[in-house]
Amino acid sequence: MGMLINLDGHIAPTASLSVLDRGFLYGDSVYEVVRTYQGRPFALQEHIDRLRRSAEYLYLEIPWFDHHICTEVKRTIAAAGKGDYYIRIVVSRGADQRISLLPDPQTRPRLLIILLPVDSNPQLSETGLSLEISQRERVSRNALDPAAKTGNYLNNILALLEAQRNGKDDALLLNSFGQITEATTSNLWIVRQGVIETPVTDVGILHGITRSVLLTILERLGLPHRQVVLKPEDLETATEAFLSSSVRLLMPIRELGTYGLPECPGPVTRQLWQELLRVMAHQDRDSLP
Asked: What are the pLDDT digits (tens) for 119-168?
């Protein structure tokens, strides 16, 4: 089956929103992306928790209980049938009766769930990605905090378009202090001198669900790791690197700027890939060794 959409409980291959919907007009919405593995959505509750935090940041009240959102996600999966899916959960502030930056207090939020099929047998890429260090600065936490997963993604879109125009697959964005934040839709990890490093959240990143799972895996396995402030010059001593996200899971990196990684994918990336799939299969972080 192809795309399947659940809009406010109505499941169909297509759906329509008002042209006055604030998510359409202004990006005034929040969203989450969940992946199923072996037919079950992974870390669904964690995603819903983050959805609520993002909504709170936007002064947007989500009127549904967690149970209702979970039920609608599972109803949509059941309607799609067997297989694994990309699931996008969107809450828009809804449609106003007039066009104004200031939301109408009577506006009713909309719940949109989009399903697209994905490979049920994900494989770790053996070629990896080439990333550029973007000249486009990451939006400041004081302007629109990247920790809130909103529908406003123009900054990331422009960085990605510019990277691809330069022959790269993706981009790493720096904050105003020249510190590395993340790629356009994924968190960054590097391995230096046997230590696994990822940027601290304070530099301005999304608190990735997969990132959180990986930190738990690293802790349980006893692998040396740390959250640090990274500058572009730090990348030139990395032996391997990868991105993490709910859709990509782990994506090895072969090139950072002009620096070619010695190993792609490296042994740490391969080990974490296997552990992540095992955790996803068990759907239980407490099953980690």
From this structure: 999 999 999 999 999 999 999 999 999 999 999 999 999 999 999 999 99
pLDDT at site 286: 43
Question: Out of 21-25, 57-61, 281-285, which region has the weakest mean confidence (pLDDT)?
Answer: 281-285
Q: How far apart are the C-alpha atoms of 144 and 63, rounded to whole Å?
A: 23
Q: Which amino acid is at 144?
A: L
Q: How far, in Å, CA of 287 to CA of 285, rounded?
A: 5
Q: Residue 288 above 90 pLDDT?
A: no
**DSSP codes of every residue in 61-120:** ---S-HHHHHHHHHHHHHHH-SSEEEEEEEEE--B-SS--SSPPTT---EEEEEEEEE-S
Phi, psi of 271 (to 5 degrees): -65, -45
Between CA 187 and CA 199 the distance in angstroms is 8
Query: Domains, the chain, ranges and CATH?
Result: 4-118 (3.30.470.10), 129-287 (3.20.10.10)
Rounded CA gap, 29 and 72, in Å? 18
- pLDDT above 60 (res 115): yes
| pTM for this model (two decimals) | 0.95
